[in-house]
Amino acid sequence: MSPAAVPGPAIARRNSYFAMSRSHRYSILFALPLLLGYEALAALLSQPGKGELRNGADALLRSAFTMVAGVHGSAIFMAAIILIGIALVVRDMRASKDRIRAVVFVQMLAESAVLALAFGFVIGITTAKLLGSLHALSTSALALSPLTQTSWPTRLMLSLGAGLYEELFFRVLLVSGLAAGARVVLGLGKRGSGILAAIVGAFIFSAFHYIGPYGDPLQLQSFVFRMLSGLAFSALYLVRGFGIAAWTHALYDLLNMWFPVYEGWQPLPLQPSVVFGDPLPPDRNAIIQEVMALLSPVQLVSREWAADYLAEKLGYDFPKDMLTKAAAEQQQMLDAEAQQIAANAGQLPTD
Fold first, then answer.
1. Where are the beta strands (DSSP E) in 71-140?
2. Among 35, 15, 10, which residue's Cα sits nearest to residue 25?
3. Is 317 helix (H, G, I), strand (E, B) or coil?
4. Cis bond before residue 297 (omega within 30° of 0)
5. DSSP 8-state class, residue 134
6. What pLDDT score was predicted for residue 334?
7. Cα–Cα distance between 271 and 326 in angstroms, integer?
8. What is the DSSP code (8-state) at residue 310?
9. What are the Cα distances from residue 162, in Å, to 171, 217, 232?
10. What gap in Å lies between CA 189 and CA 193, rounded to an integer?
11. Are the CB atoms for 221 and 135 separated by under 8 Å?
12. Nearest Cα to 85, choosing from 12, 33, 15?
């Protein structure tokens, strides 16, 4: 290969979609609508005289600036975000000497949407399969987050904020800092430091969701679910950059509001078909036992109510006669047990 032919492939790689979408000029500009949407909704939803609800990572970063700069800390924080972003974009555009192509943003949005949907299924299935062997450690159903009681505009605002500020804090700052520390302190290579930083960062990311008045009750299922999410987003940030990771995270949160993840565990002896359930896998066994206790030995609720309740909680679509058969089988087992006890009592010696 002649020297004149060498730059050709290098330029092609630099101008490929995957290279451009990772660059600062595309990654930061792609994340700009998340910032604008989040801040606009936060301003519209704020109520004078009451505390302002914001994403936890955003609040944490603002608090750090407020501790240093006082009442002007929040304004300085926003100014720093905007100025650093502009500086990185301008520097990258000067280095690349290339114009901004709108089609790249469309491709990035499509990629983020596909990744968000894939993450929801893969992480949900992995959590359900993993917890199948750890089921004994989780003895109660997953409590609903206090945020589920908020309005849709509030949840939209928080989802946009999660995509932007949680990726900024947990991936750009935390994972990058952990990876750099692992290389300097532990002497690890680029791959080893990245893996270690992703695992530690995912643990911290999951634990972060249980802090504060709007934090979720600590449950094994939700902790594993969020740690796997943290691992996935850390890997995505390291491979695809900030912009794709931020939009995937925001869309992932939004999708979980309408399309809860698949849960891969079925109770026996019932064999209902599985459809979409709660955003985080519930303790199905506990719910089934609760309903069966209401049905027998004394039927406290109707079988129709039980079927509707299970359909609402677990997404089951029961055949009409399934609960009747299940209750009859359980009653037969109870009758057989009672007969055995009576038989054993009749064989006891008497004085």
1. none
2. 15
3. strand
4. yes
5. S
6. 72
7. 10
8. H
9. 12, 19, 15
10. 6
11. no
12. 33
For residue 136, pLDDT beyond 50: no
Average pLDDT for residues 107-120, to the nearest whole number?
91
Give the position of tokens 């908020």.
150
Tokens of 209: 């969701």
pLDDT higher than threshold 50 for residue 161: yes
Provide the residue type at 72 as one letter.
Answer: H
* Tens-digit pLDDT profile for residues 226-281: 888 888 888 898 889 899 999 999 998 887 765 443 333 333 333 333 333 334 45
Per DSSP, 273 falls in state B
Contact 306, 295 (CB under 8 A): yes
**Which residue from 140, 153, 164, 124 is spatially nearest to 256, judged by alpha carbons?**
124
Give the rounded distance of the alpha carbon of 274 from its chain centre. Answer: 21
Beta carbons of 212 and 58 less than 8 angstroms apart: no
Orientation of helix 190-208 relative to helix 220-240, angle to 10°: 140
Residue tagged 């990744």 (tokens): 115
Question: 227 to each of 31, 208, 217, 277, 280, how far by Cα in Å?
Answer: 24, 10, 15, 20, 13
Of 171-185, 227-241, 269-283, 318-332, minimum mean pLDDT range: 269-283
Sign (positive or negative) of CA dihedral 240, 242, 247, 253: positive
For 226, the token pair is 């969020």
Using the CB atoms, write b or e for 122-148: b if 16+ within 10 Å. Answer: ebbebbbeebeeeeeebeebbeebeee
Q: E strands, the chain, where?
A: none
The Cα 176–Cα 197 span in angstroms is 7
Q: Extract the tokens encoding 284.
A: 């199905």
Which amino acid type is present at position 217?
P
List Cβ neighbours of 245 (8 Å cut-off, separation of 6 or more). 167, 171, 233, 236, 237
Is 201:174 a contact under the CB 8 Å cutoff? yes
Q: First vs last Cα of the chain: how many Å apart?
A: 107
- Specify burial of residue 31 (Cβ count, 10 A radius: 0-12, 13-18, 19+): buried
- pTM for the full predicted model: 0.63
What does the alpha-carbon distance between residue 176 and residue 53 come to, in Å, rounded to a whole number?
28
Is residue 200 within 8 Å of 218, Cβ to Cβ?
A: no
Q: How far is CA 185 from CA 171, 177, 179, 191, in A?
A: 20, 12, 10, 15
